[in-house]
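Journal club side-thread
Mid-discussion, someone asked how the predicted structure for our own chain would compare to the paper's figures. Pasting it here so we can look after the session.
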Amino acid sequence: MPRSLRVAVVGAGPAGIYAADALLKSAAAADPGVSVDLFERMPAPFGLIRYGVAPDHPRIKGIVTALHQVLDKPQVRLFGNVDYPTDISLDDLRAFYDAVIFSTGATADRELSLPGVDLDGSYGAADFVSWYDGHPDVPRTWPLEAGKVAVLGVGNVALDVARILAKTARELLPTEIPPNVQHGLEANKAVEIHVFGRRGPAQAKFSPLELRELDHSPGIEVVVDPGDIDYDAGSVETRRRDKQADMVARTLERWAVRDVGERPHKLFLHFFEAPVEILGADGRVAGLRTERTVLDGTGDVRGTGVFRDWDVSAVYRAVGYLSDRLPKLPWDIESGTVPNEGGRVVQDGGGHLTSTYVTGWIRRGPVGLIGHTKGDANETVAGLLDDHANGRLQTPAAPAPEAVDAFLTGRGVRFTTWEGWHRLDAAERALGEPQGRERVKLVEREDMLRASGA
């Protein structure tokens, strides 16, 4: 009887778990014994859901329920707190598995070439998100002395950063924020947050629902300048063919014509303002200079030569994420992705890298919503199974499942398991219960490992 297919997935965020699910469903009829091992560098699974989604978005975090159902399947195993390539390399994985899928996502800030970007008080949004989401590998404190703050970018991450800065610690306390984040936000002095986009309302990348949620806080007054509501032929066409873009524009139009209320924290959404310099004094952020832009007829903009200086003392750059380069794999430095064809990794000299695949943001860049990675997973898995059916996969030297456990144990790796996640989950829920909260997230890696029984 032929041996069942064994696949390793590096990265146990949504993209990796969707790939495991797609593989089990697609191969079930021909190979009911197919199995998947997920390797995750954090002690806990779920990646972006746990460490990239704002804590006041329980609706998005509800996706975890669906991911749980995949990880509950007996054909799936989790190896947490295992770092690629420090703890296990590509050559090691090839010794144990027929194929390897990388789904490591994107966690770093994309660089922004702007004078003053290195000033004290200029921050990457990804770093701030990691702090308020309790990532174990970032500092436990965050400087929140600025009363007036600028956020560069008009995507959902920019909204998250602006909203967290504008909300009070009391308002966020019912969420899963850990104590260090709560204490940090209690000292937050921000009362005026300015979000800047170089193009217009029709080009904003906000999700309609996330934008509307911005106005739900009783302490946040969202302000839009009526002069920023403008469209050209390209913008009109965008609204006509993109329902979400039209919904965003309609929301912004409504906010632009209403009276400004008395809520204590003001959140300004500025359009047609292109950042050109972060101004400094004594090595610290002292302002932001923007150039007014106008639409050029295509939906893009051109500068007008009219500049304005904004009184802010902190700047958050939310201009996109970037994936970390993966050793032993080819790399496209411009897009920050692994070159691939339908998820099959393409070598530098051409041709597919045997038994090696990518899915999610490491495959196509950090664009789209979480659900979009399902399509990636389906296409990548289809290519993998086609290679398997046509004898194009390599044969592992040690395919027995217990060989992986023995290898990691021999390396002294303190790995966590799916059962360990259930223990960690119970520990966090127990911390939240006395306060009437769903959970309080553990931050220190050692605390997570101990609670998981690693």
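Post-session note: The chain has two domains: 6-107+323-415, 109-321.
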